[in-house]
């Protein structure tokens, strides 16, 4: 089960019972402000407990007036230099209260005190390569093995083919011909910004720095393609993934509370960002 991606006017919205939320992924300026009311109607009719919107900072006032709160920021995301904001409206009180307060606080403390720059042990692994269409079945199997649930259908080979053909570059590393680690860069070419996402390493290869290696190579590729800003939305319950972003000089951008159905339940997510190019 995954949520549906649809259009509202000229804006893109994902919604459904898995994440139990409506998510305005890409608002078209002509659709604001009427879309704010429309999102609320959709969420209340379907019984969703959260509405999340990814908006330019200049739209923030309209959303705050409609009882949204600012959860995270990616400075300088837009080509104009404006920040990208994640703002949310919680339709039930419980959705706005952290599901795992102790674990999240513990991981935050761990990440806060960790400052060492990451040493990427490149020589331990085979070279990273771009995934191709004929990798899609093996990639989907890996995602299915690693994630009990995911907000987008990465375990569907057709979804991978579709995203590969549009705006996403997937990277992998192999051992004895088998894919053992994957990640993806979802490019927003209008804004020269990129989401570093979909990190998955098979259990037997973990603890050797493979995800950091994948991230370093992906950053190199994104820089060479002229991307200016990188960001990510990482699980608060995955200390390893967040430590990697911290160690690779990403800055913390905020918390999306009880946001995403991933690895079997709804988790809060941390936003991280980094300037790749001035
Ligand atoms: C997240 C994931 C990709 C990381 O894989 P990896 O490259 O093997 O990461 P590592 O185990 O080397 O961990 C990275 C760093 O965090 C540290 N770390 C991991 N868990 C830790 C913990 N509980 N406490 C302290 N440090 C921890 C590691 O020591 C390592 O630091 P180092 O390089 O300085 O030694 C992998 O665990 C995975 O596939 N998980 C399931 C999918 C997932 O949750 N993806 C992330 C979605 S946001």
What do you see in this structure?
With 278 residues, the protein is of the alpha+beta class. The chain has 2 domains: 4-96, 3-Layer(aba) Sandwich (Aminopeptidase); 101-275, Gcn5-related N-acetyltransferase (GNAT) (Aminopeptidase). 27% of the residues lie in helices and 35% in strands. The chain is built from 7 helices and 13 strands. The chain has helices at residues 34-46, 60-65, 101-113, 136-146, 157-165, 210-224, 239-247, and strands at 4-8, 11-16, 21-26, 50-56, 69-74, 84-90, 129-130, 168-175, 178-188, 193-201, 229-235, 251-262, 265-275. The strands form 2 sheets. A 7-stranded mixed beta sheet has the order 7-8-9-10-11-13-12, with helices on both faces. A 6-stranded mixed beta sheet has the order 1-2-3-4-6-5. Strand 8 (168-175) and strand 9 form a beta hairpin. Helix 3 runs parallel beside helix 7 and helix 4 crosses helix 5 (157-165). The longest helix is centred in the last third of the chain and has 15 residues, at 210-224. The radius of gyration is 18 Å and the shape is globular. The model has no long low-confidence stretch (mean pLDDT 95). The structure holds coenzyme A. Coenzyme A binds at residues 110, 146, 199-201, 206-212, 234-235, 238-241, 243-244. Residues 110, 146, 199-201, 206-212, 234-235, 238-241, 243-244 line the site of coenzyme A.
């Amino acid at each position: 089960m995954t949520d549906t991606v649809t259009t509202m006017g000229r804006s893109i919205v994902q919604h459904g019972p898995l994440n139990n939320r409506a998510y305005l992924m890409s608002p078209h300026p002509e659709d604001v402000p009427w879309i704010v009311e429309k999102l609320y109607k959709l969420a209340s009719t379907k019984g969703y407990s959260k509405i999340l919107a990814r908006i330019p900072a200049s739209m923030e006032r309209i959303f705050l007036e409609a009882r949204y709160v600012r959860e995270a920021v990616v400075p300088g995301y837009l080509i104009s230099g404006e920040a990208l904001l994640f703002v949310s409206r919680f339709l039930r009180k419980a959705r706005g209260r952290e599901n795992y307060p102790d674990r999240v606080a513990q991981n935050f403390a761990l990440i806060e005190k960790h400052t060492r720059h990451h040493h990427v042990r490149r020589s331990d692994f085979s070279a990273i390569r771009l995934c191709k269409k004929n990798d899609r079945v093996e990639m989907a199997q890996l995602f299915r093995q690693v994630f009990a649930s995911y907000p987008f259908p990465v375990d569907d080979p057709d979804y991978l083919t579709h995203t590969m053909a549009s705006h996403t570059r997937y990277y992998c590393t192999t051992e004895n011909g088998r894919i053992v680690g994957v990640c993806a860069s979802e490019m927003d070419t209008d804004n020269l910004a990129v989401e570093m996402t979909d990190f998955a390493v098979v259990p037997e290869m973990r603890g050797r720095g493979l995800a950091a290696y994948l991230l370093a190579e992906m950053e190199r590729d994104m820089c060479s393609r002229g991307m200016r800003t990188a960001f990510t939305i990482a699980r608060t319950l995955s200390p390893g993934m967040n430590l990697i972003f911290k160690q690779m000089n990403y800055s913390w951008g905020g918390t999306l509370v009880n946001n995403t159905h991933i690895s079997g339940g709804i988790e809060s997510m941390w936003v991280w960002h980094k300037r790749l190019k001035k």
